[in-house]
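Practice problem 4.
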């Protein structure tokens, strides 16, 4: 199993970023996928999930700002993040979710990509 995130970086408050995760080594189209994040000094926080049918689920603080999507032909899952806030600063991880329920346990996760929201 390999999950490789990309797209992180430094962005100003109110800006946008799009994260991508390239997946391999498992049956991607049958797997629920999630994004989670970990801010400095804090635990891992679930961000959102998408199941194999394409249904999406979001943590309350991300609803309306973040959008998860998947491309089964390319074995990729993406996270579009808009209206970013300084508190969104974290390492963002792509993960294979064991749910439902989603966001609780993961089979595997990637190395993560750093997102820093700062002026």
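Answer key:
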């Amino acid at each position: 199993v390999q999950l490789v995130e990309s797209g992180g970086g430094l962005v100003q408050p109110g800006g946008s970023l799009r994260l991508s995760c390239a997946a391999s080594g498992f049956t991607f189209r049958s797997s629920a996928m999630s994004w989670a994040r970990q801010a400095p000094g804090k635990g891992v926080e679930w961000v959102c999930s998408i199941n194999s049918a394409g249904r999406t689920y979001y943590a309350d603080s991300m609803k309306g700002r973040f959008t998860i999507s998947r491309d089964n032909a390319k074995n990729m899952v993406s996270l579009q993040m808009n209206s970013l806030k300084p508190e969104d600063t974290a390492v963002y991880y792509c993960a294979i979710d064991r749910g439902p329920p989603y966001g609780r346990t993961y089979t595997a996760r990637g190395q993560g990509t750093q997102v820093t929201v700062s002026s």
